[in-house]
Amino acid sequence: MTKFNDLPSDDNSYLFDPKILKDINWENATCTFKNNISIANPGDSLVMRPLRDDDFHQDYLELLGQLTKVGKIEEETFFKRFEEMKECCGTYYIIVIEDLKNNRIIGTSSLIIEHKFIHTAGQRGRIEDVVVDNEFRGKQLGKLLVQALVLVAKKLGVYKISLECKIHNIPFYELFGFKKDEQSFMIQRFEEMY
Ligand SMILES: CC(C)(COP(=O)(O)OP(=O)(O)OC[C@H]1O[C@@H](n2cnc3c(N)ncnc32)[C@H](O)[C@@H]1OP(=O)(O)O)[C@@H](O)C(=O)NCCC(=O)NCCS
């Protein structure tokens, strides 16, 4: 069982260096955690870590299926997309919580960094694809996943971070300092093509 503190920095199978998670400054956290839950100890047999190139086999896509339509994805496609993300160094931070008892991913969230010219060649962050497995909800894991990435974004020096969510999830995201913006959010969907 690989514990959080033992995640190796030189393991090339991770999407990003696990050290980034270990170096988070939790003093900047805006929410509190019950039951002594922490990044180093998310629960019995659970470990938080970056997405790994073999997570296709740990039910990562099945978990995303609890959030939205995933479609049929072969292992080769998963691996290719993973490698593309990894090559965009400093852009994709996908974290997961694995249940080591069953080798299953039971929680995930993503931080995507946009690299800009504006704001003195600044960076902005987006939180996406937050989901906790049905059986593990209400155990502080969603909070841990989002808080961790908000703090990673802060450490990376983004000038702002945003997300889109359903109205009923607004109170959840307010825990991390997100506020409803008065700007209009516009969208055009091409989903029927896929
Ligand atoms: C939303 C979600 C990620 C929350 O994860 P979770 O592990 O169940 O939540 P946690 O146990 O970490 O924390 C929930 C806390 O937020 C509060 N909360 C507020 N609004 C909430 C909401 N809409 N859903 C869940 N918790 C909410 C809870 O009261 C709880 O407070 P507490 O810590 O004081 O008890 C999870 O319910 C989920 O995967 N939902 C389906 C997918 C989804 O909607 N994802 C978000 C897409 S924008």
Folded structure, characterized:
With 194 residues, this protein is α+β, with helices and mostly antiparallel strands. The protein has one domain (4-193): Gcn5-related N-acetyltransferase (GNAT) (Aminopeptidase, 3-Layer(aba) Sandwich). It is built from six helices and five strands. A five-stranded mixed sheet has the order 1-2-3-4-5. Strand 2 (92-99) and strand 3 form a beta hairpin. The longest helix is centred in the last third of the chain and has 16 residues, at 141-156. The N and C termini lie far apart (39 Å). The model has no long low-confidence stretch (mean pLDDT 95). It binds coenzyme A (COA). Coenzyme A (COA) binds at residues 34, 67, 130-132, 137-143, 165, 168-169, 171-172, 175.
Number of domains: 1
Question: Total helix count?
Answer: 6
CATH class: Alpha Beta
Q: What amount of the residues lies in strands?
A: 15-25%
Ligands bound, unique: coenzyme A
Are there runs of 5+ residues with pLDDT below 50, and where?
A: none
* Terminal Cα span: 39 Å
Coarse structural class: alpha+beta
Number of strands: 5
Set out the fold topology:
Layout: H1 19-22, E1 46-50, H2 60-64, H3 75-87, E2 92-99, E3 104-115, H4 118-121, E4 123-132, H5 141-156, E5 160-162, H6 170-174
Parallel strand pairs: 4-5
Antiparallel strand pairs: 1-2, 2-3, 3-4
Catalytic activity: D-glucosamine 6-phosphate + acetyl-CoA = N-acetyl-D-glucosamine 6-phosphate + CoA + H(+)
Domain N-acetyltransferase: 46-194
Pathway: Nucleotide-sugar biosynthesis; UDP-N-acetyl-alpha-D-glucosamine biosynthesis; N-acetyl-alpha-D-glucosamine 1-phosphate from alpha-D-glucosamine 6-phosphate (route I): step 1/2
